[in-house]
Amino acid sequence: VTEQVMKTMIEDWAAPGDLVVVAAESIKGVKFLLASFHGDTNGLATKPIVTAVLAVWKEAYPDHQFLMGLDGNTYKVHNEDYQGVEDFNKFLKTEHLSSCWGDSPDPLSPTTCNARTYLQPQLNKAIARQDRLTKGDVNLKDWIIFSADAFV
């Protein structure tokens, strides 16, 4: 199904291996459209990729349950350079989707704490251990999304 999704996009939002979409059926006959996406650093590809997957789901697999896990690279604050948590959640609601974070994800609840150490060549990017939570990349970036009326 990945190829179907890639063909719907005008721009190349996903590099090879960043997106996988499969249709599957459980042993009880429940059909699923499962997707996994590893987003770009700033999260700007997240909404276009989800939009493309949803288009294929609605067109070709409407009888399947939709479930997608993604490294959406969402940030505390949304702007033209970074995809924000609250903006992404508003997008999900307009698409009648929900997430593992519920109706109102807290942008201050991180899934990532990334800080470079001094054991790498770019010392200007290094962060002391005691500063990792205040100066590191500490954001809610990981999501599991699904149809809002599924799994109830």
Structure description:
- The protein has 152 residues and is of the alpha+beta class.
- The chain is built from four helices and seven strands.
- A five-stranded mixed beta sheet has the order 1-2-3-7-4.
- It is elongated and about 50 Å long.
What would the average pLDDT be, to the nearest integer?
A: 92
Name the shape in a single word: elongated
Helix percent reads 10-25%
Whole-angstrom Rg: 17 Å
The sequence of SSEs as H and E is HEEHEHEEHEE
SS elements, strand count:
7
Taking the sheet with the most strands, its summary is: 5 strands, mixed
Strand content: 15-25%
| Total of DSSP H or I helical runs spanning 4+ residues | 4
Keywords:
alpha+beta; 7 strands; 5-stranded mixed sheet; 152 residues; elongated
Task: Walk me through the topology.
Layout: H1 2-8, E1 19-25, E2 31-38, H2 46-60, E3 65-71, H3 85-94, E4 97-99, E5 112-114, H4 132-135, E6 137-139, E7 142-147
Parallel strand pairs: 2-3
Antiparallel strand pairs: 1-2, 3-7, 4-7, 5-6
Can you give me a brief rundown of this structure?
24% of the residues lie in helices and 24% in strands. It contains four helices and seven strands; from the N terminus they run αββαβαββαββ.
